[in-house]
Amino acid sequence: MTTIVLTTCIALFHLLGLFAAMHAVTHTRTPQGAIGWALGLLLLPYLTLLPYLYLGSSRFLGYYAGHPTRSARPMPGQPAERLPLEPACARFSAISALQGRPFRAGHRLRLLIDGEAAFAVMLAAMEAAEDCLLVQFFIIHDDQLGRRLQAVLLRRAAAGVRVCVLFDGVGSHALPQSYIDTLRAGGVAIHRFATHRWRNRFQLNFRNHRKIVVVDGKIGYVGGLNVGDEYLGLKPPLAPWRDTQLELRGPAVAELQQLFADDWRWITGQPLPLPPAPTGEGSASALVVASGPADPRETGSLFFTAAINAAQQRVWLSTPYFVPDNAVRSALQLAVLRGVDVRILIPSRADHRTVFLASTLHAHQALTAGIRMFRYQPGFLHQKALLVDHDTAAIGSMNLDSRSFRLNFEVSALVVDEPFAVAVAAMLSEDFSRALAITEREYRDAPYLRRVAMHVARLFDPLL
């Protein structure tokens, strides 16, 4: 009897594995991923069925249903709308069409460098909110910084300000319920971003990695910082923590509000009343670039590819995770062949060992293509910054990896403005001065087993 039950279970596993393999072949985004999943599901369904249930889906379903902003994003097969662009922004017309929005002029910008300075500015702005405060982070910890944020939110809610908070359920998995309950008891509307509906319910991949703060519809913040003491450089061995946030004042703040409202509607089912779009206060042109697994196209990868292809003089990139896909890798190589100064800054310390190993191999291969690679020395580099030529820069949450390209909801601000690009160039020049150039010896002199581990780690590129 036991033998019959065991045989039946094995046959059932293989049958389910067959159906799952068929699903993987027809739905996985990359051929490498399809082959990997199909072989695993056919040969070892006992080990791969459960991971496939949690990691195998390639689309976040239902997110745009009923959203009025959905119509602004072009569908595959539809011609991209030609949007009016200023001459300085014209070379980024593909990115504008991809977003379904034009660049908007009239922005005043400020770089906020590293955690303590950035949070001092952001918390002060939140403290001054009079009408509406929108706060979204991938990670919120119940630590020193987290309690500072909590106190500000409670004070504004007590003053009659409408305070809405979103955090990611996986990124903030350690956030205690008591932290949330305290905010709710104080009048703060707070929710965790989750997959939420049955078609996505088992998926761990689809995370909301955005960092957005909007104060009274007038001031917006985007960048790489989350809410935790490590972002203040208070947690060795990754301290000091290198990161950058961007303050925006101008029409693009309304786009940040709308992104928050889209996420809010997904979670709560309710529309979020928003203040009117602010008028222009400065001279910079900006476009909020949003991407995510619900997009009909692979927006994150296309954004980097289009920006790099537009470069004529320089492309400087700062990213904690360097795991480019074929499109971005090809764009970087073509930029080098055009004579563009291509430099990429990555960490010298690892916060995720598998990603670090894969990044090391990608860095070695980038060197062979003429791309200059550098490792930041003082601490962990978490900054996501892009500089193109003399007049364009982007700051946001997008890493240079498949997770940001395809699996996470992300946001960056693409700015065309020479004074701002000068400020970003000065910031990155200081970062490069604190970095060491990577040479081929890093890979060549590594122990054999470490090199093997790099190549094994790269097999997981679609999930990194």
Task: Provide a short characterization of the protein structure.
The chain has helices at residues 2-27, 31-43, 45-55, 93-99, 115-127, 144-158, 177-185, 253-268, 299-309, 326-337, 353-368, 402-407, 418-433, 441-444, 448-458; strands at residues 104-113, 132-137, 162-168, 189-193, 207-208, 212-215, 219-223, 241-242, 244-249, 284-291, 314-318, 341-347, 372-376, 380-381, 385-388, 392-396, 408-416, 435-437. The protein is built from 15 helices and 18 strands.
Characterization of the model:
The protein is of the alpha/beta class. The chain is built from 15 helices and 18 strands. The protein has three domains: 54 residues, no CATH class; 184 residues, 2-Layer Sandwich (Endonuclease, Chain A); 158 residues, 2-Layer Sandwich (Endonuclease, Chain A). The chain has a 16-stranded mixed sheet that branches. A two-stranded parallel sheet has the order 8-14. The two termini are 44 Å apart.
Helix percent reads: 40-55%
Mean pLDDT: 88
The CATH topology annotation of the largest domain reads as Endonuclease, Chain A
Low-confidence stretches: 198-202
Can you tell me the CATH superfamily of the largest domain? Endonuclease Chain A
Summarize the biggest pleated sheet.
16 strands, mixed
Our count of domains comes out at 3
CATH class of the largest domain: Alpha Beta
CATH architecture of the largest domain: 2-Layer Sandwich
What is the CA-based Rg, rounded?
23 Å
Principal-axis shape equals: globular
Content-based structural category: alpha/beta
Calculate the terminal CA-CA distance, rounded to whole Å.
44 Å
Number of strands: 18
Kindly estimate the percentage of residues that lie in beta strands according to DSSP.
15-25%
Number of discrete helical segments = 15
